Amino acid sequence: MEPNRVVTLPQLPSEVLSVIFQYLSLPDILCCLTVSREWHVEAAPYLYSNAKFLKGTCPSLIQRFKANKHYIHHLEWDALSPKVISEEDILDILLDYHASGPIEDLDDDVVLKPGSRRATLYSFRFSGTLDSVSRFDEILFNLTSLTRLSLYWWAYSREVKGNIISLDRILETMPHLIHLSVEGCDFEPLKPESPLLDQHAPMYRLQTFCFDASLIDCQESILRIFRRLGHLVAISVYGDKYNATNFVSGFQPQRVGLALQTFCPKLEQIHASGYIPFYFYLFPTSTSLSPIKLHGNDQQEHSLLEEQRRQQCEEAFELFPKLKSFSTDHCCILAVEDLRALGVCARFLTHLTLSGMIKPAYNVPLSEQQDDGRVQRRCNITTMDLQIFLETCQHLQQFSAPRMAISLEDMTPSGMAISRKRRTYGNNLIRLAKPWACEQTLEKLEIGFEVASTHPSDHRIVFAQLGRCRRLKSLSLRFSDLMPTLTHGVDLLVGLEDTLEEIPSWSSAWSCDNKETLLWLLTRFKKLTKIGTNIYEGSGLQAQVMGWLSPEQCARLSYNTKRILISEI
Amino acid sequence: MKVTLESSDGQVFTVDKEVAELSVIIKEMLVIEQANQDHPIPLLNVGAVELAKVIEYCEHHRNDPTIDDDEDYDSRKKPIEMDDWDKQFTIVNKEMMFELILAANSMQVKPLLHLGCRYAADIVKRMSPTEIRDLFQIDDDFTPEEQDKIEWEKQWTKL
Question: Rounded to the nearest 5 degrees, what angle is found at the Cα of A35, between the Cα atoms of A32 and A36?
Fold first, then answer.
């Protein structure tokens, strides 16, 4: 533009100023406050729109928010740490209610009538213990303007329950609600006349819903709560993080899947936190017990068997037809049947994250499996299944399964020899690998590769496959024993030189002591700006490596400090 | 169906109805004056140059999903996505951009207003109050007492 010309611009009407301030951060807002009276009037609301009452929040700050409470639109309140804010102040801010005495002394039948200067909240995030706030219900259900509500009740143990909240009351009193997250409390049992069960009422607007798995096991009719949640796009379920065999008793993956499939056609994202079993597919009853693990006696017979499995997966009943993303944290339960079928027929699946421990457990308690003919005993995921998944899943963009590794022998295609004796299945059968189906779409890969050899030709087999994934932006070697040197096959990644951006590799076999490889990567791969090496900060190796590189190149490396990751990418 | 629009300086533009309807004002006018569509719709605050640019924007975004008024409820929702075309569109001089903001505001073309305000926010960022006053020809109309009060008001953010 023209820097030297004096530019004067038209005065902006106040409604436009207000829109501009939406895009400014707090320091800029502070500056705008002092421009003129008009600007002050328009900027002040943004100064107070985000309130946080957390541990350590200064009391005088709370008084300022109190004086400007009508500007508050977003509130985060941590009632776990006592006396961040008094109950009188909270009532004043949220309801514009001024009690004459302590709240505890109020008669139960005194209605807390909200005043006109109270905050209009759009988002509210609350964490507390069961007895942290008296008359919490009354406060909550006056917040009718909310679009995002997040409630977290903390209890010493999952067994300590007793806080009960009414889901239908939340949805009925907050018609604008888009996001709801409720953790650590039970939902009130639905009455037959509950508006949630009304077939003729319109859908609620809710798009994301996070809840404890116990919501779904507490009563028979509960799955019908999804009847009016037809706009749901994403759900997140919290379950037990410690015990895989005792996941929420009564959580029936099949029924949950069917209910969501029937009532929530827009569902795209599922997140499971803790050991929550999900079925993605149901196989026809005729399918024999765990056929997925059968192996043929020779190549031909085995290919035929695999093709049969593939067809079986295609015919399986899909429970989440629109699924784009499935992710887990800490731990998860996923059976090979579901992984296989996801690969074959989840047409929209682009993101799969299986973090933490993947429990080698069956998806449902054995007792339940026997009761239900349609539910087969489900099997553990092995290295070969991971390879088959990648061979079949066509649109995958991100795949992260840090605790899982594909073994070299399962990645070896026909005509390639490996240095050690290969594992055989059944009668000396060796499975030959096919190219990954997602080579054209994969952008981020975070799984392990188990080569278990130092022979360069072994490593080259893996790098050859990786080098064909031309869209790859992030390739993690953190969980592999791959040796990244030019002789071991890094040169095969040459096709990625215009796309690859990061190689997070701390705690891998990447010691970076190969000067030639490092320089080759840093010179040819222009976009590669984040290499997380396994070099310890301050070590002799670090000094040596830095000696090889220019300052610009050094800036693209990060090092391992004190055995803790310095910059997790 | 076509609709004709007339700029403040008398130029007439003919556009598809669905394009014109990205402007909330025009949409409302069309509902009211259904019978009277032979006359061009007068836009008294919008000059021909700006109107042409607004129409260019609306033509490109004619198929965008309309923003539900209710979803606008929470005004601090995530900012509207800017695509490459939008970025190209905003490469104009400052005066033009601010005239466009005013035009979008008076015609109530909300996505364009937000696009422009984002541009404006980028300009205002990093500027001192004096620079802002010079740029927009604003008078400092605070009394010394008010100024003290604001300084005090600003203090708490440093807590």
Answer: 120
Does 3.80.10 match the CATH number of domain A383-569?
Answer: yes
Single-letter code of the amino acid located at A256: V
CB A443 within 8 A of CB A475: no
Say if residues B81 and B43 touch (Cβ distance below 8 Å). no
Is the model's pLDDT at A140 over the cut of 80? yes
pLDDT tens digits for A330-388?
788 888 888 888 998 888 999 999 887 776 555 455 455 455 544 556 777 888 889 99
Where do the domains of chain B lie, and which CATH numbers do they carry?
Answer: 2-62+81-139 (3.30.710.10)
Of A31, A47, A205, the CB nearest to B128: A31
| CA of B139 vs chain A CAs: smallest distance (Å) | 7
pTM score: 0.80
- Check CB contact under 8 Å for A24 and B118: no
Best probe of the A interface among B153, B155, B158, by most A CBs < 10 A, is B153
pLDDT tens-digit series, residues A285-303:
655 555 666 777 777 888 8
Interchain CB contact of A30 with B (< 8 Å): yes
Chain B interface mutation, best of A29, A33, A36, A65, highest count of B Cβ atoms under 10 Å: A36
Q: Between B125, B128, B140, which is nearest A24 by CB?
A: B125
Residue A363 neighbours by CB distance under 10 Å: 23
